[in-house]
Amino acid sequence: MASALDSQVDIVVPEMPSFTKGYHHRPYPAISPSRPEIAAAATGKNIVVTGGGTGIGKAIAIAFAQAGARSVAILGRRADRLQQTAAEMKSEAAKHGHSPIIVTEVTDLMQRENVDAALLSIQTKISTEAGSTYLDVLVSNAGMAPKMGTVLGYNAQIMMNTFGLNVMSAFNAVNAWVPLAPPGDKAVLINVSSMMAHARPVVTNFAYSMAKAANLKMIDYFAAENPTIHVVSLQPGIINTELGGDDMPVFVAPDTTELPGQFCVWLLTEEARFLKNKFVWANWDVEDLVSRKDEVLTTRALTWGVEGVPV
């Protein structure tokens, strides 16, 4: 259907199906960092967010700071963006009565040795200031969305770069993090994924979808290999960010970055523990989601597979 927006944007995002009756585009009270249950879940935790200088990663880092995390560390490629975000985190945390340790690390997530060094540096800094040695939560958020195109005729180098940034950055992050994570069932990995990992093909978006599908399967294996670690993968919403650079089409994106930011903090609560090893959307109403807890726990709901083939 044509609209006045058609001359201003390339794609208008349609309404989405939902696992829950409630479907949100922006934050709401049940996921507020000020909610006591959420603040309690964040208190004392050391958080690491890759790709934390801009967009969704920035919003996630700010939400953890608002909720009262002990420390929030952000990793990225651009020192100026990291410093700007760190200043905002400090300001927003203060508004909520908190003063977390804030750490920035400029690093290339494609280089394993750089990621190892960055996380060790974070551990050293928070140990000095807070006497804590564990990195409790890793939010694997870094990624990129390439220019659109079909399989036939697509630039092979761009395809491989897309795979690298969406898969290898997460691979390097989890490998660097696990030796520094708390023992037992206290470690939490939040994998910022995309609905494109499981959705029907969207013509011209194969490279991003392929990379996100590979990322999701890798994280599925990581979860199976490390059953004590609490792993959740997340569709953050449909949001205009810098992820795709100048080549991406302009979207009318209905969701705010604050929605997945606050949803990620909610994922640390006891009421969200039933979502271990599941794939969720930040848009879904958390109270509706909790009301379907028994279904989620006793079926393959919110897992990736082939319908009708329970393997």
Automatic annotation (TrEMBL):
CDD domains: SDR_c (cd05233). Transmembrane segments: none annotated. Pfam families: adh_short. Gene3D superfamilies: NAD(P)-binding Rossmann-like Domain. InterPro entries: NAD(P)-bd_dom_sf, SDR_fam. Keywords: Oxidoreductase. One of its GO terms (molecular function) is oxidoreductase activity. Belongs to the short-chain dehydrogenases/reductases (SDR) family. This is Short chain dehydrogenase andI. It comes from Trichoderma lentiforme.
